């Protein structure tokens, strides 16, 4: 009887719990209240002990996602009274249940971070947010649940928000859900979400759901990785797409890992269409794409292939500029194209840049449109009788061209085909250079759009591979002269002269260059308006603005100096700096500048002798941690590159140098190299240290060869010299 009674009680409790769960099947996600979000996540998808039946080796991890869910609902809506013309609802739930296994995870998850206004890969425009909820609770090992009721939400710069999670301990389960609902007042076309499945922690149970009405076409891809998409018709005009996967391993390597190249991912495209049901019936079950079709590319870039009908006047002005500059001098076609690029860059972006940046419109770069710039270049190429085509690519970080889900994700270049060489034109901004395009699209395979007939009315596509730059073209060179500070031998004076070439320029140019002076000099060259120049604008506001820009430049140089030497705290003090070149004109191919610093913490006095941490003078070097020594994925880097250092230390009179042999290193293989040597010339100790990465990509089988030169580079930082007092 006791057993029957207990069974009856248990059945009653289960029935009571089931009845307490709200039936949300008929409720639109956009109508959820905070209690209903809580019911969906914590009742319908409540925690159970079965969730902790994961691979045993995961117990060595820092944390585990027991549940990882992203749920979207996208609906077309007629205009409503309180938002005139509203056309789209986007509702979203992100639900995470994480088991905390060590102190590192405890510290990381003791604050929940999220971005207001953003969900997945899409950020709504300001003012579209209708409502937003965050539910947090802690599940203790004994089953006790603690709901975090009082949540102080702190907002940081850039819209990032955080909420402290009190009473969280190792062994606990953190269970939280973010809900957002937005009303957009315009149609949306594009990738609304894209992310990789491999996270910093393994995932036990992954769920992804998108629900749409009849007006939306959903396309999906996971690249070359097997993820099955299931589809379901929920009602006559409602469709659901879902992905479920279990036991997803964590990211194997975070450094030099282009996740969309190496692991499974989800990229979901949503496009509005009036006749989507008709399109859906034609497509049948083919609801996702794995590659672009030739006709998609041609359709996207047909207009770009045509010459601009308004380009004649500007081309005529360009020819006049050439005639004034070179007079009767015979110049090559390469030089003409170089002049053409800088002239058109000035016309489309730079001549108004001071004005635009002063008024906070610099992001527009005064580009009338990419189409118009392209049309002007193509008009010139036709007048010069130089054949050309358009190369369509996607950045390497986004995956392969075959895995692009929509043509709007692509990028492009104009390729002028000269005898023996190709010249590439990439759309300009104030810092772009001739025949130079972003490293993200170097060495990528793309589609070439070219004319299939002489008249160019029929376009065809074929595959092509963009070139990669040589590592010798992307060099950062540092020449540093070091001496003891007068009156304080615990401090070193360091005067550094720096030169960057190729892609290395882009990391420093924006911060180092006096951009206002750069633009004004360009305006003088092309005889255009010197807006804001002191000779034209003597207002107090402009004077204050110029002073503020110089303050920002100084702050940036302090950051560059500290980043170069990579010393702790306040051990790097910037004394002075000077820009030498801009790398932004037809005559300047490198970015050059100097900076003077005082360095502390590198000298130790031992009796009457001094020990100098001379290895630290080559700046921050890559140090691989223990987890990085073994690697399972290919290596993807921004670009091939080199770093060259010449350090000259003035040895004070009365001291001799010990330990020079410790600085000799020589490793060279197909992936890269490192070479260092120290020598003494009179009272000048010269240390030469060169390190090169020869490619932007290495297969994982070459990781051991990369370590062969990376590990000595990190170890070099520990090298010391002894200055011994002579008897």
From TrEMBL:
Entry keyword set: Signal
Domain DUF3857: 90-232
Signal peptide coordinates: 1-20
Name of the featured protein: DUF3857 domain-containing protein
Organism (species): uncultured Aureispira sp
């Amino acid at each position: 009887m006791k057993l029957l009674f207990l069974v009856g009680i248990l059945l009653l409790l289960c029935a009571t719990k089931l009845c307490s769960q709200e039936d949300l099947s008929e409720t639109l996600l956009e109508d959820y209240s905070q209690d209903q979000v809580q019911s969906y996540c914590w009742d319908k998808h409540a925690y159970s002990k079965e969730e902790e039946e994961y691979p045993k080796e995961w117990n060595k991890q820092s944390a585990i996602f027991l549940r990882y869910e992203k749920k979207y609902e996208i609906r077309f809506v007629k205009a409503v009274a309180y938002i005139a013309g509203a056309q789209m609802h986007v509702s979203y739930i992100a639900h995470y249940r994480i088991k905390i296994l060590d102190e590192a995870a405890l510290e990381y998850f003791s604050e929940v971070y999220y971005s207001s206004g953003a969900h997945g890969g899409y950020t709504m425009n300001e003012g579209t947010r209708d409502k937003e909820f965050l539910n947090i609770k802690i599940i203790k090992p004994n089953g006790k649940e603690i709901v975090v009721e009082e949540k102080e939400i702190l907002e940081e710069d850039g819209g990032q928000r955080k909420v402290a999670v009190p009473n969280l301990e190792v062994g606990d389960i953190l269970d939280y859900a973010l809900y957002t609902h937005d009303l957009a007042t315009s149609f949306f076309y594009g990738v609304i979400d894209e992310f990789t499945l491999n996270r910093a922690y393994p995932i036990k149970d992954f769920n992804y759901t998108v629900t749409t009405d009849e007006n939306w076409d959903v396309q999906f891809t996971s690249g070359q990785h097997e993820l099955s998409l299931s589809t379901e018709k929920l009602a006559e005009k409602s469709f659901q797409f879902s992905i479920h996967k279990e036991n997803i391993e964590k990211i194997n390597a975070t450094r030099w890992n282009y996740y969309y190249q190496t692991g499974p991912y989800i990229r979901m495209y949503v496009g509005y269409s009036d006749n989507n049901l008709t399109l859906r019936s034609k497509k049948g079950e083919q609801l996702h794409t794995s590659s672009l079709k030739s006709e998609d590319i041609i359709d996207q870039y047909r207009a770009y292939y045509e010459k601009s009908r308004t380009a004649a006047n500007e081309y005529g002005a360009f020819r006049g500029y050439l005639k004034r500059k070179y007079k009767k001098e015979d110049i090559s076609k390469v030089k003409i194209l170089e002049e053409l690029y800088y002239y058109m860059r000035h016309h489309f972006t730079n001549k108004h840049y001071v004005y635009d940046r002063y008024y906070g419109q610099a992001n527009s770069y005064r580009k009338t449109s990419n189409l118009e710039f392209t049309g002007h270049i193509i008009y010139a190429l036709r007048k010069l009788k130089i054949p050309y085509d358009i190369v369509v690519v996607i950045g390497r970080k986004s995956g392969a061209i075959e895995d692009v889900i929509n043509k709007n994700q692509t990028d492009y270049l104009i390729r002028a085909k000269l005898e023996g060489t190709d010249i590439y034109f990439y759309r300009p901004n104030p810092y772009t250079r001739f025949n130079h395009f972003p490293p993200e699209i170097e060495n990528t395979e793309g589609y070439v759009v070219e004319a299939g007939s002489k008249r160019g009315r029929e376009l065809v596509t074929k595959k092509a591979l963009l070139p990669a730059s040589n590592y010798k073209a992307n060099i950062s060179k540092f020449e540093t002269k070091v001496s003891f500070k007068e009156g304080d031998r615990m401090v070193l004076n360091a005067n550094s002269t720096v030169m960057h070439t190729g892609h290395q320029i882009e990391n420093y140019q924006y911060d180092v260059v006096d951009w206002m002076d750069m633009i004004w000099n360009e305006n003088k060259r092309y005889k255009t308006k010197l807006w804001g120049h002191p000779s034209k604008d003597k207002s107090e506001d402009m004077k204050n603005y110029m002073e503020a820009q110089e303050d920002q430049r100084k702050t940036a140089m302090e950051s560059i100096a500290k980043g170069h030497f990579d010393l702790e705290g306040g051990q790097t003090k910037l004394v002075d700096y000077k820009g030498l070149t801009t790398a932004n004109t037809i005559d300047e191919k490198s970015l050059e500048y100097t900076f003077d610093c005082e360095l502390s913490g590198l000298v130790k006095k031992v009796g009457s002798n001094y020990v100098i941490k001379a290895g630290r003078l080559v700046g921050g070097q890559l140090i691989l941690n223990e987890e990085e020594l073994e690697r399972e994925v290919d290596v993807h880097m921004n670009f091939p590159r080199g770093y060259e250092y010449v350090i000259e230390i003035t040895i004070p009179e009365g001291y001799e140098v010990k330990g020079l042999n410790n600085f000799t290193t020589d490793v060279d293989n197909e992936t890269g190299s490192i070479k260092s040597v120290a020598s003494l010339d009179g009272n000048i100790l010269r240390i030469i240290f060169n390190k090169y990465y020869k490619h932007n990509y290495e297969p994982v089988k070459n990781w051991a060869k990369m370590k062969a030169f990376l590990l000595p580079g990190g170890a070099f930082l520990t090298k010391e010299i002894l200055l011994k007092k002579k008897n």
